[in-house]
Specification:
With 219 residues, this protein is of the alpha/beta class. Helices cover 35% and strands 19% of the residues. The protein contains seven helices and nine strands, in the order H-H-E-H-E-H-E-E-H-E-H-E-H-E-E-E. It has a seven-stranded parallel sheet with strand order 3-4-2-5-6-1-7, sandwiched between helices. Strands 8-9 form a two-stranded antiparallel ribbon. Helix 6 (153-166) links the parallel strand 5 (136-142) and strand 6. Helix 5 (119-127) crosses helix 6 (153-166).
């Protein structure tokens, strides 16, 4: 069941029906604070899963203090895109973008509700003991399959490990379209695994040979 304060926002945005992965995430305890690992195809609605959790955290009439939600992405360009998108969709919330100076605790971020950042920047904030870290109650890791990346993987793994140690009650949401060991990763995250194959556009596999495209499954 969707909390009333979240449903009001969905109604304003004209969202009348949720996609399969979003429904499964709710059933898996999204609104109860459970950690989730959401593994579904591109454009299947994974980002909204995180947004639902963010709205539930920040708009709940029973919230304590002023919690912060952090959304981590692998690239600065993607961080900028998410910042613009979140700022447009949720004008009543204070959204911040930080991905630059790696030698600062960015104290000003304590005035924001949602912080969009890269894994490298958030790792830096953790190491500089940003004074607002204890208010972070929700952490989303987009493209979490990059844990397996030679370059970004170690930083992401350390980041997750430190956050879980510093903030034991944090809700962690991992999003990915491509994970080969989803069950093992969900176990490591102490998360419930949400999987689904639904996609908005049908995907057909074909073979291009001498300027002709063949679809064996249809023949």
């Amino acid at each position: 069941m969707i909390p009333e304060h979240v449903q009001k926002v969905l109604d304003k945005q004209g969202i009348k029906e949720l996609r399969p992965s979003q429904k499964k995430s709710i059933d898996a305890g999204l609104f109860e604070g459970n950690n989730l690992l959401v593994c579904t195809p591109t454009a299947s609605g994974k980002t909204l899963v995180s947004e639902l959790a963010i709205l539930n955290l920040l708009l709940s009439p029973t919230k304590k203090g002023r919690p912060i939600a952090v959304y981590v992405v692998p690239l600065r360009a993607l961080a900028s895109e998410k910042y613009k998108d979140f700022s447009r969709k949720y004008p009543s919330l204070q959204v911040a973008l930080t991905s630059g100076d790696m030698d600062s605790d960015d104290r000003y971020l304590e005035n924001y509700d949602i912080i969009i950042t890269t894994s490298e920047k958030f790792d830096s904030l953790l190491r500089h003991h940003a004074p607002w870290l204890d208010r972070v109650k929700l952490l989303t890791i987009d493209e979490i399959h990059l844990l397996n990346d030679v370059g970004r993987g170690p930083t992401l793994e350390i980041l997750i490990t430190i956050v879980r140690r510093l903030i034991p009650d944090i809700q962690l949401i991992g999003l990915s379209a491509t994970i080969g060991n989803s069950k093992e990763l969900a176990t490591w995250l102490d998360a419930r695994l949400v999987e689904d194959t639904w996609r908005p556009v049908r995907l057909d596999k074909g073979i291009l040979y001498e300027d002709t495209l063949y679809f064996p499954e249809k023949e």
